[in-house]
Design brief:
This protein is an alpha+beta fold. It has a domain at about 5-15 and about 30-85. The chain contains three helices and five strands. The strands form two sheets. It has a three-stranded antiparallel sheet. Strands 4-5 form a two-stranded antiparallel ribbon. Strand 4 and strand 5 (about 150-159) form a beta hairpin. Helix 1 packs antiparallel against helix 2.
Length: about 160
């Protein structure tokens, strides 16, 4: 890392997949996915003279990170950060598949659905609900229809 760098921590990272266009680079390799790395800077003015003017935490692209820390250091860190990212993604996907909360590892509840909707797959499976199911007193489900003019109509009732 460059000596003038005021970074406190690097990571985590996020890899953003692109839609496949089939295009290749000039060297014949496919384009790499976009990479974003979280960078936290020192808050101590002695270590970071820009602490008052710059945000403490930023998400930088791969290119911006290379400009900040240098290509060799970025390549080494990318390998480490991507290994952690892939491990975290596989855990996240497994929790989604099993419908478990990421932190508590308990089954997802209706409250979790409201707070963390991304944990629920769009697989058509029923979602938990806070509503309690109640039974009719007499056990039958009679529905009485109402006409537009406001009069009851026996033709709409279902026994």
């Amino acid at each position: 890392m460059k000596k003038s760098c005021t970074i406190k921590t690097l990571g985590p990272c996020v890899e953003m997949p692109r839609q496949s266009s089939g295009r290749l680079r000039k060297d014949g390799k496919p384009y790499r996915f976009d990479l974003y790395v979280r960078v936290e800077y020192h808050t101590d003015p002695q270590k970071n003279p820009d602490a008052k003017r710059r945000p403490i935490v930023e998400w930088l692209t791969r290119t911006e990170l290379v400009q900040l820390v240098g290509k060799k250091y970025e390549e080494k860190q990318e390998i480490i950060l991507m290994a952690k990212y892939k491990k975290r993604q596989s855990y996240f996907n497994e929790c989604k598949k099993r419908r478990l909360h990421l932190e508590t590892k308990n089954p997802l509840s209706a409250r979790d659905y409201d707070e963390y909707p991304w944990l629920f797959l769009d697989d058509g499976a029923p979602r938990p609900s806070n509503r309690k199911q109640t039974e009719d007193d007499d056990g039958d489900e009679e529905m009485t229809g109402v006409r537009v003019d406001g009069e009851d109509d026996e033709d709409f009732s279902v026994a």
